[in-house]
């Protein structure tokens, strides 16, 4: 990801190697560690396609 993907929580860039999730409503990104409420375990299962996590950022929820 390039610099045009700022975290909606901390406003720092979300890079390609960062653990991050996009809002299902506005499609903006947020670092997993920035109070998403999604655990690393859930995130890893989501990336593998084992679970579907529906998530909205604080602006959309």
UniProtKB/TrEMBL annotation:
Kindly give the Gene3D superfamilies that the UniProt entry links to this protein: Zinc/RING finger domain, C3HC4 (zinc finger)
| Origin organism lineage | Eukaryota, Metazoa, Spiralia, Lophotrochozoa, Mollusca
User: A Pfam family in this protein?
Assistant: PHD
Q: Which InterPro entries match?
A: Zinc_finger_PHD-type_CS, Znf_FYVE_PHD, Znf_PHD-finger, Znf_RING/FYVE/PHD
Q: Which PROSITE patterns match?
A: ZF_PHD_1, ZF_PHD_2
Q: Where is the PHD-type domain?
A: 4-61
Q: Name any one GO molecular function.
A: zinc ion binding
Q: Which UniProt keywords apply?
A: Metal-binding, Zinc, Zinc-finger
Indicate what this protein is called per its UniProt record: PHD-type domain-containing protein
